[in-house]
Amino acid sequence: MSTLVLLLVTGLGLGALYFLVASGLSLIYGLMGVLNFAHGSFLTVGAFIGWEVSRRLSDGSWWALVAAMLVGALVGALAAAATEFFLIRRLYNRHIEQVLVTVGLALATVALFEGIWGTDPTYVTSPAWLAQTTEILGARIPNNRFLLIALAVLVLVTIVGFLRFTRYGLIIRAGVENRTMVTALGIDVRRAFTVVFAIGGAAAGLGGVLASIYYGYVSAHIGSSLLIFAFIVTVIGGLGSLGGAAIASVLVAVLQQFANFYLGGTGDLAVVLALAAVLLVRPRGLLGAKGSTA
């Protein structure tokens, strides 16, 4: 029983991390139709800058972690907004060019990060409580999983609430449906699309800081490795569906945990097989629907 609880809760924690990365991908594709292969770079730069802030304040304290998360999210948002403004804005409805540019940017930024911070992992220090465990039904659960789960839920609620219940969210959704009409009303749709990228980048930057807590280190490749699973989650959940991404994140992470424990470390293989099965049976994903954002 304790093993089952441990695998389930740690799977939820890993799924929360996957969702923080996948939410930005799903949001950007769902609203703008852009597959952004540079999304992992937003995560990595957020993780590195967050680590720089944390170690300069008071490494290992709660207020340093909070500052790192806020700064990481801000840096991710700025990086994403700059990418949209300088690169993607000129390539809407040109999907091949989007892929080429974002893949090139992803490769270039990995080299840039290695040049600045080196090729070896940089180990991080987190608050003592996060390194401890809490017993649930006999299972010792690492406390950092609870932080991941709580923040993933907060991000999901915040994004959905922003899109559904704010004026700017209404403008974004209207701009997606009929850009010409919204522009005719005197509203700058381009600015709204930049905001969408910034929100996705902020989630990735926050995810980068939390990934460094989860793994205990940050490296130039942490974003690209997580991006693979984020794409799998996004496809399984349904391209453009935040709700689908949330469900798929949990399913993928729990499956991965169980396969690693019971099937000799075959978690990654099990996830790929699950992706293949979904594509064969339900190609649009669990909750996929054109234009879906929740």
TrEMBL record:
CDD domains named among the record's database cross-references: TM_PBP1_LivH_like
Protein family: Belongs to the binding-protein-dependent transport system permease family. LivHM subfamily.
GO BP annotation list: amino acid transport
Membrane topology: Multi-pass membrane protein
Protein name: Branched-chain amino acid ABC transporter permease
Alphabetized UniProt keyword annotations: Amino-acid transport, Cell membrane, Membrane, Transmembrane, Transmembrane helix, Transport
One Pfam match: BPD_transp_2
Residue stretches spanning the membrane: 6-27, 34-51, 63-87, 99-117, 146-171, 192-215, 227-254, 261-281
Gene Ontology cellular-component annotations: plasma membrane
InterPro entries the record matches: ABC_transp_permease, BCAA_transport_permease
GO molecular function terms listed in the Swiss-Prot or TrEMBL record: transmembrane transporter activity
Subcellular location as annotated: Cell membrane
